[in-house]
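User: Some background: our group keeps a shared notebook of sequences we're curious about, and every so often someone picks one and asks for a predicted structure to add to the entry. Today it's my turn. The entry only has the sequence so far, pasted here. Could you supply the structure so I can complete it?
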Amino acid sequence: MSVPGTVAITMAGMGSRFTKAGYTRPKYEIEVLGRPLFDWSMLALEAFREAGWQFTFATRKEEDARPFLTARCAALGIAMSDVIELDGVTDGQATTAMLLAERSLREAPFAVF
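Assistant: Of course. Here's the predicted structure to add to the notebook entry:
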């Protein structure tokens, strides 16, 4: 069975606006209305999940996000296909998305969130 497509989730930024505001946890872990921001973002992509798209993530290695992502994706019913752990910050979201695109199926659609 072929994959309908891949959604690239770029989570490798510094989250500097949140750090400057006094948050000590990564942006995706900050709780709002009883859920981490990650959940709210993923819930916005429910149509992709329901259509069977896979989700691939890019994070910074220093954050050790894989356990968090694995747990939250399992809880939300998200097909997590890959996590790329980068050694540092790239020069922007487009570059990070390209790293995820290189690992995706070329014959399937690719979307960046």
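Suggested note for the entry: The longest helix spans residues 66-76. The beta strands are 6-11, 31-32, 35-36, 54-60, 80-86, 110-112.
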